[in-house]
């Protein structure tokens, strides 16, 4: 017998279907699910590393520029004059070198015997390199510097300053006493004196430098320069412009242990 309260249209065997799951809330939860855990690809890591390196390089460059600007702002007027003079001299020398290279190229292009012209230029370049390396004697215009040191106050760094000033002014060959000065020459204080490339050098120090006297002499005589610094220490300095300066102290040509010519 059926229950009169039961709806005749409803099947008693039919089970009630579970209610549909409520949709998850959108918004912050969805954003968090999208961002965490992070999904980083190899290309993204590479891009991040490149950006970091670029930012670091820019920061270092800005800091270096700021340091140079601060140094120039705090420099004495005579130091600024010296820096400006050095820059002008270097610019002029680079222009002369560029003009010489262009002239050599023009000679090679217009010469009727290009092989002979190339050989001539090779020999000339070899001679120039021999002078710079100290393996060949040289003579030409320049200055002669005599540094007296009765009190024994001249130190290695003072002589090195003089050499650096001469090089910056365009000296092509330098000799102190009987020692040829080249790129790797060492100056060391030793037992109250100075050793140049291991050779004892005593006063008076005779410095011979080949180059344009109009550039070399002002470079040493500028305010706050080498001559003034030496004189402030009680050192006597005399400078001459001989008609011909001879630099004849030689260095032996040393063969490199590891570097070999690739040609």
From TrEMBL:
Low complexity compositional bias, start-end: 19-30
Region named Disordered: 1-30, 94-121
Basic and acidic residues composition bias: residue spans: 1-18, 94-108
UniProt-listed InterPro entries: DUF881 (IPR010273)
Protein family: Belongs to the UPF0749 family.
Record's protein name: DUF881 domain-containing protein
Organism: Streptomyces millisiae
Lineage start: Bacteria, Bacillati, Actinomycetota, Actinomycetes, Kitasatosporales
């Amino acid at each position: 017998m059926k229950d009169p309260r039961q709806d005749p249209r409803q099947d008693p065997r039919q089970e009630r279907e579970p209610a549909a799951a409520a949709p998850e809330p959108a918004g912050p939860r969805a954003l968090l699910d999208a961002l965490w855990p992070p999904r980083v690809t190899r290309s993204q890591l590479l891009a991040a590393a490149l950006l970091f390196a670029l930012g670091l390089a820019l920061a270092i460059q800005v800091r270096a520029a700021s340091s140079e600007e601060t140094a120039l702002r705090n420099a004495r007027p005579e130091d600024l004059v010296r820096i400006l003079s050095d820059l002008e001299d270097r610019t002029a020398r680079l222009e002369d070198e560029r003009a010489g290279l262009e002239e050599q190229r023009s000679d090679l292009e217009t010469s009727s015997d290009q092989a002979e012209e190339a050989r001539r230029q090779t020999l000339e370049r070899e001679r120039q390199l021999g002078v710079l390396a100290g393996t060949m004697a040289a003579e030409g215009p320049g200055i002669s510097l005599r540094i007296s040191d009765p009190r024994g106050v001249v130190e290695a760094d003072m002589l090195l300053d003089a050499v650096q000033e001469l090089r910056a002014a365009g000296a092509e060959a330098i000799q102190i006493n009987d020692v040829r000065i080249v790129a790797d020459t060492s100056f060391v204080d030793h037992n109250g004196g100075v050793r140049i490339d291991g050779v004892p050098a005593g006063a008076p120090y005779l410095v011979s430098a080949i180059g344009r006297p109009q550039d070399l002499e002002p470079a040493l005589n500028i305010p706050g320069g080498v001559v003034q610094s030496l004189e402030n220490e009680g050192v006597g300095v005399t400078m001459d412009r001989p008609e011909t300066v001879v630099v004849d102290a030689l260095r032996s040509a040393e063969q490199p242990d590891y570097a070999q010519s690739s040609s």
